[in-house]
Amino acid sequence: MTVRVAVAGASGYAGGEVLRLLLGHPEVEIGALTGGSNAGQVLGALQPHLVPLAGRVLQETTAEVLAGHDVVFLALPHGQSAAVAEQLGDDVLVVDMGADFRLKNPADWERFYGSPHAGTWPYGLPELPGGRAALAGTKRIAVPGCYPTAVSLALAPACAAALVEPEAVIVAASGTSGAGKSPKPHLLGSEVMGSMSPYGVGGVHRHTPEMIQNLSAAAGEPVSVSFTPTLAPMPRGILATCTAKAGPGVTAAEVRAAYEKAYADEPFVHLLPEGQWPATAAVFGSNAVHLQVALDEAAGRVIVISAIDNLTKGTAGGAVQSMNIALGLPEATGLSTIGVAP
Amino acid sequence: MTVRVAVAGASGYAGGEVLRLLLGHPEVEIGALTGGSNAGQVLGALQPHLVPLAGRVLQETTAEVLAGHDVVFLALPHGQSAAVAEQLGDDVLVVDMGADFRLKNPADWERFYGSPHAGTWPYGLPELPGGRAALAGTKRIAVPGCYPTAVSLALAPACAAALVEPEAVIVAASGTSGAGKSPKPHLLGSEVMGSMSPYGVGGVHRHTPEMIQNLSAAAGEPVSVSFTPTLAPMPRGILATCTAKAGPGVTAAEVRAAYEKAYADEPFVHLLPEGQWPATAAVFGSNAVHLQVALDEAAGRVIVISAIDNLTKGTAGGAVQSMNIALGLPEATGLSTIGVAP
Amino acid sequence: MTVRVAVAGASGYAGGEVLRLLLGHPEVEIGALTGGSNAGQVLGALQPHLVPLAGRVLQETTAEVLAGHDVVFLALPHGQSAAVAEQLGDDVLVVDMGADFRLKNPADWERFYGSPHAGTWPYGLPELPGGRAALAGTKRIAVPGCYPTAVSLALAPACAAALVEPEAVIVAASGTSGAGKSPKPHLLGSEVMGSMSPYGVGGVHRHTPEMIQNLSAAAGEPVSVSFTPTLAPMPRGILATCTAKAGPGVTAAEVRAAYEKAYADEPFVHLLPEGQWPATAAVFGSNAVHLQVALDEAAGRVIVISAIDNLTKGTAGGAVQSMNIALGLPEATGLSTIGVAP
Amino acid sequence: MTVRVAVAGASGYAGGEVLRLLLGHPEVEIGALTGGSNAGQVLGALQPHLVPLAGRVLQETTAEVLAGHDVVFLALPHGQSAAVAEQLGDDVLVVDMGADFRLKNPADWERFYGSPHAGTWPYGLPELPGGRAALAGTKRIAVPGCYPTAVSLALAPACAAALVEPEAVIVAASGTSGAGKSPKPHLLGSEVMGSMSPYGVGGVHRHTPEMIQNLSAAAGEPVSVSFTPTLAPMPRGILATCTAKAGPGVTAAEVRAAYEKAYADEPFVHLLPEGQWPATAAVFGSNAVHLQVALDEAAGRVIVISAIDNLTKGTAGGAVQSMNIALGLPEATGLSTIGVAP
């Protein structure tokens, strides 16, 4: 099987990462690459790490350029995917790494993104209950946000097993690549090195409704989420500290058992041995999720901590994993659980 | 007035930072410097940034060496301060930058530190209610822990004004200097650069009872604390994200007003203008505390975020500030609110 | 004595650093602050570390705004200083932190900067032979470039003592603040963290003719310079590795003696004890220069390594030092040799 | 073909990296793993990024444990390889990632390593003239040092084509993993983050004679080397700035042509397009070498800059590449030119 793939938005971080993974995917042939303002440039000048594609020229993002591929990955700014997608045939697998088709509730979309809702596509997080079934054979995939990936995998088992009350408090640290490649003063190396800072505080971050959607589905009841993202001085990685009040009488052993059961057969989710805690360095460049759980008996809270690479499992790796399922390929094809460390 | 000062433990990070500040203190003359295994070495080989003291030789930490000073700063491993302090006269101001005399409840000490409780000294956080009165004229000061400094200043006003319920959930990121200068594999640059990781999860970090002590005093009732510390890839700084459930009907304006009132006259606590969030880089090397508050109405929680330099306001700067109060000097002598950025 | 000072370009890194230092200068009162596109904003939003000036509003950079001060610091883009300076009276001390007035040879200026030469002002590197005499009482100061500061202080003694042949090979690493605060893709944190890269290779960096000018003056003959700058993953600091072929029969002791003699009375230049090498962390935020020398007998080369803070001694600290000399103040007023480390 | 491989020293950085690569090598089956003081521990606690091997227990490094494999990688401290190697049969391919068998001249070994010379094995740098022939079918491989890899590939073509005089001046920056995983105070994250510092200055670094050996062989005459290594605040990567005086009349076009010719068919050496400079981030985790050349006509020097990942091409990737050649496998099997960036 040879799958011919195009990538729209190949000059950004998500586009570069999906190309890095696709170059190692044995069933994929890389076709058209498009860019926005970078159209006309060679990829080697923009993504020097992708040596085998160094001479490729970026084209304009048009339906003509993207036509004739089996799969099209969209790595476009929020709000631009719908217009492109509707020009691609129903027989093309379209994988949107933007936010446009993640939310089910149009009111949530409009409140957090300020534009009309484009629709809802099958959600690319196979490890959630029912996740794989929704993706099998689909021709449209909404890749989850990076924070919702880390947070949903951390808390869904506790919610599903009713081990916690439906009020989550989450603080997550992300590497700067999560903020994209557009140059802004606060993202300069001079500003971020040696500094931690929060942003989107007070329930205003756009990934909040997506977390609520996932955790409420797992819990079978509405879950409230207090989410605070922080920017960390590292290029990649998310460390999500997720806590919720423990249900009455819940024990540490029950919590651990729920996670062992939930992820026993998952190829990418790795519950660490007791006493060992996740570190983002260990998942750098990999599709792995490292998890650890604790029960703070004095405070009466369950704490679950997850580490992912925001660009791999959090974006492009999750996208390739979902593509594999949609195409009927072995789910882990072209993906790895092995981080590049130190 | 010339205050003659000795520093026990001058080769570590806390000792080096207090020397850096004391070198700029107009009323201080630096006397004996002692080290543990480094006794006999010149300070320049261990603290090359302290050029004016480069030729000073570290002595053994003995009562004889420390005698004859007006003030003795102890920057010793936990559990070693009491034995030294009791050999120093009652007329000497002893400032302990270790944990030994911070906790009031011996049971807390024994549970978290595993040794007999040495006692309780006046607590060096002047910005807490009653803080200055406890320090005026004292001859013994227990310098707060770095996390308790960041967290207590962030949450005490909300607790004191009964704007939140007495259950705090806190996640904080610290630079690596908080872990000290003893070489351990997980603190190697190769391990920490590019990585975020938690430690002391589940209520077991030693600073937890100190936070509970401070916040309960502010609230006038027991406050439970869920505290998760994380190690961030930066040498200095603490960013503490502190949240608690908002009391019924509490508004954002009320929250902000409480903080404006609490810190209106504080020289070192800086409530940022609305819309601006703290970053640890802005307080690097300074004694400032940057604060911002938010009310997440959907989640029903108050979020307060503080940034400090763990070595300055979090340890040595707080120590000098308390020394100034104890000696009757202007509180800000030798201290600055100006960070070294970028 | 109270010196009233204005800073043009207060929103950038050089402007911010000179304000940080001036806030601690006992003879200075800070007057007008101007910005380019940031005029109208409060400084606190742009330089959050400068708490005492947080409420100051940036004004337009005009002669009217800058009038009425004793000293005006210009922290403007290259080529803009001359037009501002000529509108300021001859009785005002103008300190240009840009490149406009550093070079003596108009042809060098035109070749490297591509515009007509504006002139030559007294050069603000007091530690060079004759440096202080040129600055005493002057009303115009050209602050050296950051790399030329590090390199000239490293090699001038060897050149002056004819210990080396007049061909220098220099490789220097700079923190990213040297590239300024204008957001550009290659300066994003995501790009620079974890990466070393060169730029301006092959003799094209604009600081090259300035180094040649300084070293040739010291040597009394033309010195050729091969200079390669690299960008290092740190916010501040320059480490300059400077080498030249040793003259016939030169010994290591002679080399060391030349440096001991050259800098014996210098307050800011610190020749480290034998066996200890400079590190940029040790001079972070200080005006100190740390130096060490070696003779590689097998290769027949002298190696001198210097570490400075590019924003302090390399720009704003050097500027304040020269201002002090020009005004007849003690040279070290408001400046420190103590770095903020770790 | 299934190659059964053992790794001695699996808990360190070189051992971890070779395992990371071998896990992706389609012809390799990973056998025994040994450790020094870590014997008895599970690999997951020491190398958490190697998820597929998390449960493997480290054994003692003995001949019995290492017996029965086709290939044994030695990632041991300098001086320990010979004793192990001589107990392994002549039919086993032994790949030494330490220094023991790199140098041909016993006097060089004794002077730089202070112990008797163990011998000389075929040298694992296939891109050098004659490099592949020396490795085909061999049962013993001496993997080059990381700096000699970066430097030799940068300068050998210029030396071989007699475009430069035989005196090289080299300054290189390395990530901290090059210093290994043994905890030492100067390698703490607190010390290295935000800091550049040199070490081994003046011709005393142990990699110097290896560079001289390689460059002299390429030049056909003795080449002197002035080499200064620096420690950079990043976990991985080497950026080597290599310069030499240009021969009379040499042009930039000639220099470029020599490199294009030398590396036209090399799978891992990538001469960048003119105007683009290497950055270590682009080769992170890959076996690629990025190169660029310049001629500084004013200074009369050729500058060649190379970027490699010190752990991959600089150690473990080079080791696997040489193993492939020795075993008759396609040279690039299990290796990639694609970096993990940003």
Automatic annotation (TrEMBL), chains A, B, C, D:
Its main location: cytoplasm. Keywords: Amino-acid biosynthesis, Arginine biosynthesis, Cytoplasm, NADP, Oxidoreductase. PROSITE patterns: ARGC. Pathway: Amino-acid biosynthesis; L-arginine biosynthesis; N(2)-acetyl-L-ornithine from L-glutamate: step 3/4. Coiled coil: none annotated. It catalyses: N-acetyl-L-glutamate 5-semialdehyde + phosphate + NADP(+) = N-acetyl-L-glutamyl 5-phosphate + NADPH + H(+). The active site is at C146. It is found in: Cytoplasm. It is an enzyme of class 1 (oxidoreductase). GO terms for molecular function: N-acetyl-gamma-glutamyl-phosphate reductase activity. SUPFAM superfamilies: Glyceraldehyde-3-phosphate dehydrogenase-like, C-terminal domain, NAD(P)-binding Rossmann-fold domains. Belongs to the NAGSA dehydrogenase family. Type 1 subfamily. NCBIfam families: argC. Catalyzes the NADPH-dependent reduction of N-acetyl-5-glutamyl phosphate to yield N-acetyl-L-glutamate 5-semialdehyde. This is N-acetyl-gamma-glutamyl-phosphate reductase.
